[in-house]
Amino acid sequence: MIDYGLDFAFEFAVTNPTYTPPAAVNVWRFESLQNNVILHLRRSIPGFELEQIKEVSVASSDTTTLLPLHRLTFSVMSDKYIPGGSKIEITGPNGYIFTCAFFSTDEGLANTTTCYVRKPNVAEFTMDTADPLQPNSPFRLFVYVSNPEFTPQQNYWNFRIISPLGKTIDMRDNVPSFDITGRVQVDVQATFPYLGQVNPLRIVFV
């Protein structure tokens, strides 16, 4: 029984989507019914922005198909406090294969940060227990992957920052990736290969 003139609040759990819906559809509807008759109705109640890692980008260095060692740069900045010993989990599109060989970081993380490949396209980077990060502290991870043969259909990266207790501190999904490109074969032909002479070159793309 709800009395007139009193404020009421209800709390219940929902499962959030993996990204914030567009503003046009990020709305709620409220109604109250009695005997299947609507007593109160309000439409288009504005929704809320979902929390996510503040800044994330993926920079490629060579998008050639089936390249065995492709250096990626993951740039990350969270507006949350990240305790030492936390993990940064990166999930790539299907077809990419992580390796911890030649892994490094910039000065934003301690050089004792470790790398572990949990699945071919999932890598975990564990921060030093004595190296917490304050909010809005940027850092970069330099990681090598093997490129797939073709651009994946689901072509995006997912990120999780997980505390030492296994709780997700921050996350971001659907970070855009890049297209895989074919290997270009080029033949350079000299027409007048003499010392000190003008030599028109022919560049032939095979």
Structure description:
This protein is mainly beta. Helix content is 0%, strand content 44%. It contains no helices and 13 strands. The protein has strands spanning 27-34, 37-46, 55-59, 70-77, 87-91, 97-105, 114-119, 122-126, 139-146, 156-162, 168-176, 186-190, 201-205. The strands form 4 sheets. A 5-stranded antiparallel β-sheet has the order 7-8-5-10-11, with no helix packed on it. The radius of gyration is 26 Å and the shape is elongated. It starts with 26 loop residues before the first strand and ends with a strand. The model has no long low-confidence stretch (mean pLDDT 92).
Topology:
Blueprint (H helix, E strand, L loop, with lengths): L26 E8 L2 E10 L8 E5 L10 E8 L9 E5 L5 E9 L8 E6 L2 E5 L12 E8 L9 E7 L5 E9 L9 E5 L10 E5 L1
Antiparallel strand pairs: 1-2, 3-4, 4-9, 5-8, 5-10, 6-9, 7-8, 10-11, 12-13
Strand order of the largest sheet: 7-8-5-10-11
Largest sheet: 5 strands, antiparallel
- Taking the alpha carbons of the first and last residues, their distance comes to 80 Å
Please tell me what the overall shape is.
elongated
Uncertain segments are none
The fraction of residues assigned to DSSP E strands is: 35-45%
Number of helices: 0
Assign the structural class, choosing from mainly alpha, mainly beta, alpha/beta, alpha+beta, or little secondary structure: mainly beta
* Mean pLDDT rating: 92
Brief account:
With 206 residues, the chain is an all-beta fold. 0% of the residues lie in helices and 44% in strands.
